[in-house]
Write a structure and sequence with these properties.
With 243 residues, the chain is mainly β. It has 2 domains: 56 residues, no CATH class; 117 residues, Immunoglobulin-like. It has 3 helices and 14 strands.
């Protein structure tokens, strides 16, 4: 009721959430001009939050969990596995697909999400090759630009998806990230070096294994967006180390 009354005044409103888990936001809380997730901070919380709100320090943190559209989506995990009946997001009423009836399959605020006082754009992924050799590495890069009028810190995140494996793999997995500071109007190329060991997983026999094949890769601001590309890991049928 208090939030509704304040919204009725027609003034821009910033919501401070003090929470220890993901929340299903609704109404005027969800529709506020800005939302700051403060978690349960310590005795200096007031000073820290004030520094961010008044612009002495720009926000640069990212969500370690996903916020759902509705409570019925919980528990919502960004690294959920794919389904044999994927829903087409353009066909909301399509029958016999793995989807929610009245809610998008996506998160409202996904894992890794977070805004800054800048405005960050991502260019396409640049790869030195579309093949990663078994004993080699693969460099991937993306150019990020701050088109806003304030300095910002962006957290560029690298996700991968193994298209075909002996054990079903998640739709996306975070494998690396880098933080970059950008002045207004500044662009910077952010480069990652990917090696085959980062593509491994625990198999059905409970051993660590790496399998060749096609992989999707994203350089992204969070788990639901970003620039994407595909590469192939070249090698033997598989390798395990029994760890």
């Amino acid at each position: 009721a208090l939030v509704d009354a304040m919204t009725a005044l027609g003034k821009p409103m910033v919501i401070l959430l003090r929470n220890g888990r993901a929340l299903a936001l609704e109404g005027n809380v969800k529709n506020a001009q800005a939302i700051v997730v403060t978690w349960f901070l310590g005795e200096q919380m007031g000073h820290a939050v004030a520094d961010v709100l008044f612009g002495d320090h720009g926000p640069s943190a990212r969500l370690p969990i996903s916020f759902p559209h509705k409570s019925g989506q919980q528990p919502y995990s960004y690294d959920r596995k794919t389904t044999g009946r994927p829903a087409n997001p353009d066909l909301a009423t399509e029958e016999y697909k793995s989807r929610y009836r009245e809610t998008p399959n996506t998160a409202l605020y996904p894992f890794g999400y977070g805004l800054t006082y800048g405005a960050i754009t991502y260019g396409p992924i640049e790869m030195e090759s579309d093949k990663l050799q078994w004993a080699g590495t693969l460099d991937l890069a993306v150019t990020v630009t701050n088109t806003g009028s304030h300095a910002a810190e962006e957290l560029v995140q690298l996700y991968i998806h193994d298209r075909v494996a002996s054990l079903t793999q998640p739709g996306r997995l975070l494998k690396d990230f880098k933080r970059v500071s950008l002045r207004p109007g500044q662009s910077e190329k952010v480069t990652f070096t990917l090696n085959p060991r980062q593509l491994g997983f625990i198999g059905a026999d409970e051993t660590w294994r790496i399998e060749p094949g096609l992989f999707d890769v994203w350089l992204a601001p969070h788990a639901q967006g970003g620039a994407t590309a595909t590469f192939q890991l070249i090698g033997p049928a598989s390798i395990t180390d029994g760890r």
